[in-house]
Design brief:
The chain is mainly alpha-helical. It is about 70% helix and about 0% strand. The protein has five helices and no strands. The radius of gyration is 12 Å and the shape is elongated. The relative contact order is 0.18.
Length: about 70
């Protein structure tokens, strides 16, 4: 699978899918005591940032994890 295909797949995920892929990040942001950093939009932004910093192998791993 190409990076482009993986990125397209990632963009199609909803917040529930992202919470399954990034459970610790979801908990960290959504249970934060900081009122400025506890919305679903903040969580999605962090997921996108993490995704951009991943290698192709890491992205494929997450893709295969969801596909199972």
């Amino acid at each position: 699978m190409t990076i482009r295909e993986l990125d397209k797949w990632f963009r199609s995920l909803d917040s529930r899918d992202l919470a399954d892929l990034f459970p610790s990040l979801f908990e960290e942001i959504m249970e934060s005591a900081d009122p400025e950093r506890n919305s679903i939009n903040d969580f999605i932004k962090e997921c996108k940032s993490d995704w951009r910093n991943m290698s192709k192998d890491e992205k494929e791993y997450l893709y295969n994890l969801v596909r199972e």
